[in-house]
Write a structure and sequence with these properties.
With 195 residues, this protein is of the alpha/beta class. The chain is built from 6 helices and 7 strands.
Length: 195
């Protein structure tokens, strides 16, 4: 199955741009930059959108302008408008259960408590199966601190680690699109092996 839509989950506005919860958007923006594309606001699909070509593959990009727990509205609008099936979608998001500096690509699964994923699953309906790029941000160690943690800016060291994971994820995205998911997963997981 070909990936036709890549979404970077986010909260809107400058206030949240540098927060851990927005690392999915960091990845999509870098993907756009490296393909010399500019994301433009499209109010019909509640987000910033763009596209790029990899060989004969045409891939759309989306960073929702809705808040995280309403990101599904943007994903569903884009998927419906362009007739994109859930299994043709890659959702990039922050992952508490993975340390900064690591990323994991997977297909299917639960929302794992992530409000953005929860809303996407609800909005797409019928237990949708889609790809996820889980970008590690680490865990504050106390579940009561999770909300403030994800809405805070990572330290300089953490930012560098997260950026390294995003760099490798962007490199592996071309493998995912042009070749296959298994090869992309192997490349990403080998180069960013969890210690």
């Amino acid at each position: 199955m070909t990936i036709k839509l890549i979404v970077g989950l986010a909260n809107p506005g400058d206030k949240y741009m540098t927060t851990r919860h927005n690392v999915g958007a960091w990845y999509v923006k870098q993907l756009a930059n490296e393909n010399r594309q500019y994301l433009k606001e499209n109010r019909n699909v509640f987000g910033y959108t763009g596209h790029f070509n990899l060989g004969e593959k045409y891939v759309r990009l989306l960073v929702p302008t809705k808040f995280m727990n309403d990101n599904g509205k943007a994903v569903a609008a884009m998927a419906t408008f362009y007739h994109i099936a859930p299994e043709e979608i890659l959702i990039a998001h922050d992952e508490l259960n993975i340390s900064p500096g690591y990323a994991r690509l997977k297909y299917k699964g639960s929302h794992g408590g992530h409000n953005g994923l929860k809303d996407i699953i609800h909005s797409l309906g019928n237990n949708p199966n889609f790809y996820r790029l889980r970008i590690g941000i680490g865990h504050p160690g106390d579940k009561n601190k999770v909300v403030s943690f994800v809405l805070d800016t990572p330290s300089v060291t953490e930012q560098e680690l997260i950026q390294n994971a995003i760099n490798e994820s962007v490199r592996c995205t071309s493998i995912l699109i042009q070749e296959d998911a298994v090869k992309a997963m192997h490349q990403l997981h080998t180069h960013l092996s969890i210690s």
